[in-house]
Amino acid sequence: MTTELNYTAAQQYIDEVFTQLKEKNAHQPEFLQAAEEILLSLTPVFEQHPEYITHNVLSRIVEPDRIISFRVTWQDDNNNVHVNRGYRVQFNNVIGPYKGGLRFHPSVNESIMKFLAFEQIFKNALTGLPIGGGKGGSDFNPKGKSDAEIMRFCQAFMTELYRHIGPDVDVPAGDIGVGGREIGYLWGQYKRIRGAYEAGVLTGKTPGYGGSLARKEATGYGLVYFVAEMLREKSESFLDKTVVVSGSGNVAIYAIEKAQHYGAKVVAASDSSGYIYDPEGIDLHALKDIKEVKGERISTYLNYRPNATFTPGCDAIWSIPCDIALPCATQNEINGDAARTLIDNGVKFVAEGANMPSDLEAINLFLDNDVYFGPAKAANAGGVATSALEMSQNSGRTSWSFAEVDGKLQEIMHSIYTESKEAAEKYGFAGNLVIGSNIAGFVKVANGLVSEGVY
Questions:
Q1: What are the respective helix, strand and coil percentages of the chain, to the nearest 5?
Q2: Beta strands 242-245 and 170-173: pairing type?
Q3: Distance CA 204, CA 331 (A)
Q4: Is the dihedral of CA 156, 162, 165, 168 positive or negative?
Q5: b or e along 358-391 (b: 16 or more beta carbons within 10 Å of the residue's beta carbon)?
Q6: Backbone angles phi, psi at 141, to 5 degrees
Q7: Are 303 and 296 in contact (CB under 8 A)?
Q8: pLDDT digits (tens, 9 = 90+) for 72-129
Q9: How many CA atoms lie within 13 A of 288 on its CB side?
Q10: CA dist., res. 257 & res. 218, Å (int)
Q11: Secondary structure tally for the chain: helices H, strands E
């Protein structure tokens, strides 16, 4: 009887918080999707920790500390004036300074910023490093812009952002549309305004001026290290497995590189124009030349490998039979139909390299059909973990070797997997890494909120 009463109280509390959240944020579907995915996992936590209800930690966690929205005015090469909107969502700093990337993409809006920042809270908590959750960006589109235009936009963006960030306050990094070039322009403007060398205020810098070795590779490598743990759990390995990877940015490229290193055959990759299928295995040198050197569309891969095929549009990439699927492109790229196709074609492992690339229907289908599923907040945490390692190097005025950083990354991904697995088992959901990672990250933040009291 007591258990039933506790369950009812816990579930009622979660339902009430989510109902209020939907009423306040009815126009923000991405944020509500991210919140629902986590809240659905937490009933057993509140059953065992009624003090979380007493301290109303859920209502406190789902409301960001602050949302900063600002105008970014810049001039193009023809002296035409343009106006974009910039954001920084500082969601939660219980564990450490706000930490999360900046995204420059036309799709950026407040809902997407909040969903990414909310996910970042728990992803960062899982790393075991002292970093809180935040995210930012702009609806500026860097595609088709000259270097000078991108520089002027970044300078205008940082001219507002600088007053809200700092090495012990909020530490942005890169994301979609923001790579080493953009971080360099942002960092240069921050230094000019502040008149100080505060290297720890931005991560993703180029090695040689405060950046960390292995940062570019970290998310993709970390994803594969996490999947290696998943495979080991089932007494399997990457050797001779067929892998489909979506995307062709840093995450996808370096996931492909490390999966191939472990003996897998990766047969597909994509960009926003479509996807390539190479049944003999992706030529990584060709893919890097196309994307990292020339900046061309992925269809030019056929110039290197004429036996490969290119298909316009990205949805059908998940119709390619594979043992392992690694979505590394963007949010909600795998829906229910795509998940059914993957399952029908025999996929056994799915792990998310992008942020929230599988919708709730797809996730439930994977879980219900014995597909071992690695959620983004656990599987792609290698990038932010290495960003935090960059912060440590900046604080100590030192630089670690590639092998040192990579070794620490492997340890962190092993720890994330172990904590997620054990949390799932502790709360009665053995084998469910979605619930396990949600709970493992949430409990760390909730304990912090309880310990610091109400303010």
A1: 55, 15, 30
A2: unpaired
A3: 22
A4: positive
A5: bbeebbbbbbeeebbbbbbbbbbbbbbbbbbbbb
A6: -110, 110
A7: no
A8: 999 999 999 999 999 999 999 999 999 999 999 999 999 999 999 999 999 999 999 9
A9: 10
A10: 12
A11: 18, 12
Reported as a single tens digit per residue, the pLDDT across 316-347 is 999 999 999 999 998 899 999 999 999 999 99
Residue 64 dihedral angles phi and psi, to the nearest 5°: -65, 150
Give the contacts of 155 (CB within 8 A, at least 6 positions apart).
Answer: 74, 185, 188, 189
Q: Any known ligand binding at 447? A: no
Q: Is there a binding annotation on residue 345?
A: no
Q: Is 8 exposed, middle or buried (0-12, 13-18, 19+ CB in 10 A)?
A: exposed
Indicate the class that CATH gives domain 218-374: alpha beta
Q: Where are the domains of the chain?
A: 2-62, 66-196, 218-374
Q: Do domains 66-196 and 218-374 have the same CATH topology?
A: yes
Q: How many whole angstroms separate alpha carbon 392 and alpha carbon 413?
A: 18
Torsion of CA 406, 411, 417, 423, to 10 degrees: -150
In angstroms, rounded to a whole number, what is the distance separating the alpha carbons of residues 409 and 175?
Answer: 19
Q: In the chain, what is the straight-line distance between the N-terminal and C-terminal CA atoms, in Å?
A: 35
**Residue 174 known to bind ligand:** yes
CA distance 164 to 205: 19
Helix (H) or strand (E) holding 91: strand 81-92
Domain 66-196 - what CATH class?
alpha beta
CA angle 71, 102, 206 (to 5 degrees): 125
Token reading at 291: 């994307």
**Which alpha helices (DSSP H) does 277-372 contain, by range?**
284-288, 301-304, 336-344, 360-368
Burial of 160 (0-12, 13-18, 19+ CB in 10 A): middle
120 is in an annotated binding site: yes
Do the beta carbons of residue 77 and residue 49 sit within 8 Å?
A: no
How far apart, in whole angstroms, are the C-alpha atoms of residue 209 and residue 325? Answer: 36
Whether 155 and 190 have beta carbons less than 8 Å apart is answered as: no
Residue 74 has φ and ψ, to the nearest 5°, of -150, 160
Query: What pLDDT is stored for residue 215 in this prediction?
Result: 94
Query: Is-above-0.85 flag for pTM?
Result: yes
Place of tokens 């119709």: 319
Active site residues: 135
